[in-house]
Fold each of these.
Amino acid sequence: MKKRIIRVLFVYAAIASSAAAYALIMELTGRGLPCIFHKLTGLKCPGCGNTHALHCLATGRFREALGHNAMMPLEAAFAVWLAVASAARYIRTGKYSLTTGCEAANVVFLLLFVGWWVVRNILGI
């Protein structure tokens, strides 16, 4: 079990380091990665604007963050829940499964995610 905890901490440290490096690059250049879906279709995906929103949050610009993607706080909360639940399951059982363990929550989030995708393109937000 101790090995599993170390593995989880290593993965989280690698993710945090990558995010910090990307944030630094974005801060220095003022540019993020373009959304491939948006480039190909002209439509916004459910996550369009998340990089800019997270950057705004990291620099204390909360209102501006919501302007980039109003669904981002819910997406971020779900991602954290997913990461914690998956890590806890891996530490406990040794089996990796990227799920919250609550199928109803997964379905509700998926419906909200798809609904946001449709609404933001109809309303142009």
Amino acid sequence: MAEFSVRVSTGDAIGAGTWNKIAVSIVGTRGETPPLRLDHPGKEFSAGTVEDFQVESPQDVGPVLLLRVHKAPLLLSAPVGAVARDAWFCRWIQLSQPRGAPLRFPCYQWLEGAESLALRAGAAKVSWADDHPILRQQRQEELQARQDSYQEALWEDWENRGPGMPPPAGSALLRKRKEKKKKGMALTRASRGLPFPLPCWKTYSPGWPRCLDEKSVKDLDLNIKYSVKKNSCFYLKVGSAFTELKLKGLLDRKGLWKSLNEMRMMLNFRMTPAAEYVVKHWQEDAFFASQFLNGLNPVLIRRCRHLPENFPVTDDMVAPMLGPGTSLQAELERGSLFLVDHGILSSVHTNVVNGKPQFSAAPMTLLYQRPGGGPLLPLAIQLSQSPGPDSPIFLPSDNKWDWLLAKTWVRNAEFSVHEAVTHLLHAHLLPEVFTMATLRQLPQCHPLFKLLIPHTRYTLHINTLARELLIAPGQVVDRSTGIGVRGFSELIQRNMQQLSYSVLCLPEDIRARGVEDIPNYYYRDDGLKIWGAVESFVSEIIHIYYPSDTAVQDDPELQAWVREIFSEGFLGRKSSGVPSALETREALVQYVTMVIFNSSAKHYAVSAGQFDSCIWMPNLPPTMQLPPPTSKGQTRPEGFLATLPPVNATCDIIIALWLLSQEPGDRRPLGTYPDEHFTEEAPRRSIAAFQNRLAQISREIRERNQGLELPYTYLDPPLIENSVSI
């Protein structure tokens, strides 16, 4: 007879408690106890509680290896329904014996219905470090269960194709499983000993990274769904924004804006200080140029050493801006010229909005940084990739409305490239791949799982929701943007063909674009600080668990994770430079840093400013209703207004980008880890050091921002979410 003290922590989220029965089985080196009910007088397992229980084992199981948690309805005969499914969020369970230190078993997940779940003590273990057959077996069974689930999805896919196709491997087993499902006897995720959901891949659109095979958020496992709090806040925001614009009669107006003044009066919707700055300064050349550095899409600008052949800017054109004593060639050699090329938009599909064809351009913008200081300024804009009489080069010396319209076409191109490529592809679809591979290929005890799981929170939910409500045919992108879903898809396909690993690694990307020393580039300055903090943190964790490069090479789970990201996310394209295997600790540190940075800081930097940039629609028009000008001197105020998006499309996009710019409650800022997956002292010290470094970076950013007319806040660590969750 052996006595154990069991301490159980229940989550504090809405609905985290349960009325179901909870029991534990203790697995040791010499055997396993029967289920031991956790019971005391009164209600157990209420939300936010930490409770102590005493249990007695009829046998001595030896040193403890695993803890099995069993959850069952109060009434064994209860039908499958609300009572049977009563979910419980278990944070952790601690097991104590009269002798020896307590063992903490992290859980941090929901259990639904009648489930059993195997938990390991909190120490992280790489596969070759598991020193007992039972632990090795549990590890193999967990990964095998994930593969079984994947095969089950393949079987269902095969059945849907009809006769004539060979069944997938393991089909006899899978047929039995499907028969059990029909009888209400399906094995649940957790009863197979599998923590966390079982995501399967699908191709949403050819040439895109593959994604989660679910059609609706209502079908998602509780562990990857929004919490009740976050979901409620999200839809309250939707409702309030929709109601305000509906009451103003804007969502149903398909016509043009009457004037810029009408726009200014009507779009005073949830104005932020940054948005108010945009309204005041949107026509200024310095502000136009600054948005390439610190605006919504600060990743395209690059130093220009040689003018593209299809952008024939001449000395005479730019002499008024460059001033005396210099030339275009001299400034190219000096490195003071920069280029933003939206060539990816060439011949892209254009949309129809309100029954009217829309238009797109593929502009090139030349910018000048005066040596010795001063703001970055635009020198020349060409609105196509094909120079000629019908594609004039617009200049600051042109008349006001010609020049303003040319800049507005560039801002429209920024909208399309940002939303399709920088935001959707780089900051949503790729983090979804990282999330999927983490859940499928890394067991819960793996140090990389523990390191990465906070950076996957809610990513599958928000991306599934986006496929439902934003990028599905007929939804927001189709209703209100100039290139529609088909155009978005073309841009993603094109970028996937040229995407390189260096683009995803900020220090390499900055060097490749030649923008190491351009002044007032706060995205670069703050981003490199955060990259460095993440890299230092990741390096410490990696060196705790991987003593050598050989240890990296010999970790099959790590290699399977990297291989799956390469094949499913980057579609096996070797020319991308994305690794399909990792050979050294240094390479592993860079790779994991890339995953965390793009799933947190990069996403926030290109997402949080969407509303600030778009609430004054001429600064970021989602579509253009007239074709790009083919000559100068023709633009008038009424023509400028006629080119801008219609009222309803403007407001449709404003609602969407307002929602996507702010976290709707239930936040976890970068470096905040309330779910304590690591229990050892060494990684906990590394987490504390990481948090201290982020706090220091935030202080530096806020001190700098005090001296800025327009503070740059999009990489302030307390504002950055740990994961892609909105």
Amino acid sequence: MEPVVNALWIGRALGKIHAACLRSFLLAGHRVRLHCYDVPDNVPEGVEIFDASRLMPRERIVTYRSNGGPSLFSNLYRLKILEAGMGLYVDCDVYCLKPIPQAAYKFGYQTDTELNGAVLKLPSDSDMLCEALKMVDDPYFIAPWLGERKRRRYHWRKAIGLPIDISHYGWGMLGPCAMTYFAGKASVIDHASAIDVFYPVH
């Protein structure tokens, strides 16, 4: 099984569900490493704390302009975990029913056509990760999966010095949409698990 499971939390306290989810990985036999900038309340005993600023400075935290949600930053930070070779990443609302087998690639379908990165592992030198890291390196990243008209407008704004930063993207654009695009481009989509493995409940 995967020896270490990594998660990210931004906020003052873990909710009861999030704490229960982290504990479920401990009960399954995984080491659990929680990345955070400030140690939250309610961290289950046995969960290791990792200073997230070692991978990305606090100043890089970006939230959705529409609602201030930090899940946008989570989409980026998990890629830095993988780049550092730290092992599997999971969202804090993923509940573990049984140990996760070890594998170089780990992600799954959330619909018949779309992947999700709530459970994610990629080789640190993989083409998929190298391409995905472009989202982290460029605060004005222009997603290739946007419609052609919108891409042209974004490129034009960037060319004249008025770029649109990634906080303007809608939910999922740098998450499931990105994972699906990059896995397809790198020809590794065959590694994806079926829907019922990671996303049996919708």
